[in-house]
Amino acid sequence: MIVTEFDREDPSLKVQLADLLELTWPDAYGGNGAREVDQLLQKDTVAIAALVGDELIGFATALPQYGQTGWKLRIMAVRDSHRKQRIGARLMAFIEEEVASRGGLVMYLGAADNYHQTSLSEEDLFVNPLQSLQEIENVNHHPYEFYQKQGYQLVGVIPDANGWQQPDILMAKRLVKRPADLQK
């Protein structure tokens, strides 16, 4: 298996990416994966592929925000048949290194809780969102714990962002060491 920049000119890889999107998130991309591929592969994005031979088994993409200092991880997906093999961790490490080389200081993401996988979907987060975030529990394999293992921290929550009691869990990671003159 190799992790490398996504070959934006390879039509076979684009078809495989559309398929990966539709299989991973059928509610969001069912039947529309090909249209989304063009958005994910825009010129200013970083797009990374995990390949076994010519087969796309994983993908990650990030786009610059806040100039070049903040980058949003837009998508990270690994085929079900290849999960639990540290492919996601390798994709994240590669994309973080690439983003840092382009001036990125921080990478952030929103991890949707569309399927009531955390305790955050069990309450009205407008009452006390930060306390609820501090007390979060993973009740059904939500991916926020994967990102924590990659060094991401919980930094916020947007209540009802994806529908009633379907919050977006915000996470971020500093990609470069803080300069000595800013350290206390």
Fold topology:
Layout: E1 2-5, H1 11-24, H2 26-29, H3 33-40, E2 46-52, E3 55-65, E4 70-78, H4 87-101, E5 106-112, H5 129-134, H6 144-149, E6 153-158, E7 168-174
Parallel strand pairs: 4-5
Antiparallel strand pairs: 1-2, 2-3, 3-4, 5-7, 6-7
Helix pairs in contact: 1-3
Chain-averaged pLDDT: 94
Helix content: 25-40%
Helix run count? 6
Strand content: 25-35%
Terminal residue distance: 42 Å
In CATH's first tier, which class of the largest domain applies? Alpha Beta
Question: CATH topology of the largest domain, which one?
Answer: Aminopeptidase
Number of strands: 7
Specify the biggest β-sheet: 7 strands, mixed
Query: Which architecture of the largest domain would the CATH scheme give at its second level?
Result: 3-Layer(aba) Sandwich
Number of domains: 2
- Widest beta sheet: strand line-up: 1-2-3-4-5-7-6
Inertia-based shape: globular
* Secondary-structure-derived class: alpha+beta
CATH superfamily of the largest domain: Gcn5-related N-acetyltransferase (GNAT)
Radius of gyration: 17 Å
Instruction: Tell me the series of helices and strands, N- to C-terminal.
Output: EHHHEEEHEHHEE
Q: Residue ranges: pLDDT <50 for 5 or more in a row?
A: none
